[in-house]
Write a structure and sequence with these properties.
single chain; 66 residues
Length: 66
């Protein structure tokens, strides 16, 4: 009886370890996705700032030529 209980507990423990390992892999994948999104947002912000700078520069040039 005791051996069977130990076997059941051992099986449950192994199942939980597999589950935790799976969750850990999912967390790592989500971190990767969030990192990629963060980089894309940063790139878009840089492009936006460059466009604003370019627009400002063009406006300044047009003011000088009047």
């Amino acid at each position: 009886m005791k051996d069977k209980q130990i076997a059941v507990i051992s099986e449950k423990l192994n199942s939980h370890l597999v589950l935790f390992s799976s969750v850990e892999k999912e967390v790592d994948a989500m971190k990767q996705v969030l990192g990629d999104v963060h980089c894309l947002v940063g790139e878009k912000e840089n492009v936006g700032m460059a466009m604003i700078t370019l627009d400002t520069w063009i406006l300044q040039l047009s003011d000088c030529s009047i």
